[in-house]
Amino acid sequence: MSAIIGRKHEIEELERLYHSDKPEFVAVYGRRRVGKTFLVKQALKGRITFLHTGVSPVDQEGEKNRMKTQLESFYYSLLSHGLEGFNRPKSWMEAFYQLEQLIIQLDDGGRQVIFFDELPWMDTPRSGFLPAFEHFWNNWCSGRDNLMLVVCGSATSWILGNLSRSPGGLYGRLTDEIKLSPFTLKEVEDYFTHEGIELSRYDIVQSHMVFGGIPYYLSYFQKGLSFERNADRMLFGRNPRLKDEFNRLFNAIFGNPEDCKKIVRLLVSRHSGFTREEIAAQTGLPLGGGLTDTLKALVESDFVMRYMPYGRSGKTECYKLIDNFCLFWLKYVEPNTEDGSFMTDNTTSDLMKHWRGVAFEEVCWQHVTQIKRALEIGGVKSTISAWSVAGDGIKDGVQIDLLILRDDHVVNLCEMKFAGDAYHITKDEEGKLRNRIESLKSTLSSKQTVHLTMVTTYGVAYGKHSGIVQKQVTMDDLFI
Questions:
Q1: Mean pLDDT of the region 140-164
Q2: 246-329 maps to which CATH number?
């Protein structure tokens, strides 16, 4: 088996299901390129009876022949696994019947594993796929104790809507779900170590800022090259490795990719995100069920997060873009795509300094668990949020990018700073920090207190103005 970095729990779960003595139906889902297919193929290597991958909609023109293309591809998979004596199926009912006959032929009494990769792609409009798939599981698979059905999909909203939370014939039929998340910083470090790629933790954090811990993107890193040079090869110039990746991502996952991209392009313009009403007003998308479903799909696919902004009344929710790759692509790749040495040439520029500051905040949001462990509050119930108050001409505005509101009456006001050395707090900055602390205190009860928490690369430099800091978290703590 090829080495699988991380994924220990997921491998153990697949192994447990494989050795079960009853029929199992498991869905593996997560963001596109996160490594779902690799995980299943490696964890069950040499034990998969039948494997089929849906045909990507990105590679199909229009909708007219999509069902025909999917059925034809499925038939060829049947033939390659040994099916004989059947003509090409004309419907999904017929196709699954042929699969049943193949499995009966191959069944040696041991565990029979059927793996459908990118299952949502097979469900084309008006194809009758879903009823046929339901019939396949309910009337055949579920009665065979030695059968294990594994399905994968990048269209998380399809997996959840049609399998996990299905109101129809597959309601309650899944026996397990495995959600695959992007690599943490520690897993990225382990991956690079395994591949013999030497990068400092400073540069590993930068790689996470751009590629978001997505294994597929990391696989293109080349040993012997700097972080900046690797990023240039993959994203910039006339023929980069990840050419047009942004469009391919959305076209492969969503049924309404243009609406999704329109929302994402808006969200990238404000770090703290937008409310549903603001999104409708600024994108022109109707404020109704369609927008609700699209936002839900973006959240479930890990491109966007929904959170309750601190200080807002009622049930106001904000939607914030959290996919590092999309953030970097829209801000820097699209405007500079022809510049083959953009990252290398701008390493010390103000443009990149600004990017590092904003992108590091996103990495911290993604590693709140590690921050809480470093603060030794992992066992304290808490919520995270952000707080933004506009200035009114009399008072300055307040922007706090990460709050940890704890049940033990402490609030960690987190300031994230990405610097090349220990971070120096100046007199002016101390004044701004005190203003934020006092503004936040004015909204809290008398039971609560505020701890200014600095999350930095190399810590806070001791000095005249550093005493304001209550707690520190360093870059190394994010690798816990």
A1: 94
A2: 1.10.10.10
Q: Which residue has the higher pLDDT, 56 or 394?
A: 56
Query: What is the C-alpha to C-alpha distance for residues 364 and 456, in angstroms, rounded to an integer?
Result: 10
Residue 89 CA to residue 83 CA, distance in Å, equals 12
Q: How confident is the model at residue 389 (pLDDT cuts 50, 70, 90)?
A: confident
Looking at the chain, the domain(s) classified CATH 3.40.1350.10 span: 368-479
**Please, which residues bridge with residue 404 across strands?**
384, 412
Best CATH choice for the domain 368-479 from the list 3.40.50.11740, 3.40.366.10, 3.40.50.980, 3.40.1350.10: 3.40.1350.10
Q: Which amino acid appears at position 86 of this protein?
A: F
Between CA 100 and CA 105 the distance in angstroms is: 9
From residue 144, alpha-carbon distances to 44, 152, 170, 346 in Å are 19, 21, 17, 60
Q: At the topology level of CATH, where does 8-179 sit? A: Rossmann fold (3.40.50)
Please state, in angstroms and rounded to a whole number, the distance separating the CA atoms of residues 368 and 265.
Answer: 25
Query: Which residues of the chain are in CATH 3.40.50.300 domains?
Result: 8-179
HSE, CB side, 13 Å, CA atoms: give it for residue 190: 13
DSSP 335: G
Element of type H or E holding 207: helix 201-211
Query: How far from the centroid of its chain's Cα atoms is residue 313's Cα?
Result: 29
**Tokens coding 197:** 């790629």
pLDDT digits (tens, 9 = 90+) for 118-131: 999 999 999 999 99
Closest Cα partner for 100 from 60, 147, 65?
147
Instruction: Say whether pTM exceeds 0.70.
Output: yes
Residue 3 has pLDDT above 80, yes or no: no
pLDDT tens-digit readout, 69-111: 999 999 999 999 999 999 999 999 999 999 999 999 999 999 9
Residues in the chain: 480
Give the per-residue pLDDT at 392. 67
Place of tokens 């009853």: 22
As to burial, measured by CB atoms within 10 angstroms (0-12 exposed, 13-18 middle, 19+ buried), residue 329 is buried
